[in-house]
Design brief:
about 120 residues; alpha+beta; Thrombin, subunit H; 6-stranded antiparallel barrel; about 20% helix
Length: about 120
């Protein structure tokens, strides 16, 4: 699958953010919660890292329901898996969130609060 980002910004974390996800096939949970880390995020998607391999499923829509906290609020988003890359024995995944304006707004507001706190901490040093 060919995919090119056309977003205004993408926030890259110095230290990845811990998260959990559940694999959804055709909208139904396929397995229990799996752990992952968020490497970068935008209002419309993210790059995540996981030790769990998400296989290729023919004739099925492959999505994940991901739960994460950027600052204080738990965010639950459903995203479509658009790419996968091997990273040693582990995996990087590209996830796109579509038609979730509440999630988009929450990501932006949480990133703003997080960044303000980071700037204040850096100023004290």
């Amino acid at each position: 699958m060919i995919f090119k980002r056309t977003e205004g910004f993408r926030f890259v974390f110095g230290d990845p953010i811990a998260a959990n996800f559940v694999l959804l096939l055709n909208g139904k949970p396929e397995n229990g919660k799996q752990s992952c880390s968020i490497l970068d995020v935008s209002p419309h998607g993210m790059k995540m890292f996981s030790k769990t391999e998400i296989g290729e499923y023919r004739n099925k829509v492959v999505q994940i329901e991901i739960h994460f906290v950027l600052d204080e609020v738990l965010i639950k988003a459903i995203g479509e898996l658009v790419w996968k890359k091997n990273f040693g024995k582990d995996f990087h995944y590209g996830i796109v969130f579509e038609n979730q304006p509440i999630v988009e707004d929450l990501i932006v507001s949480e990133l703003k609060v997080r960044r303000k706190k980071e700037v204040k901490r850096a100023a004290k040093i």
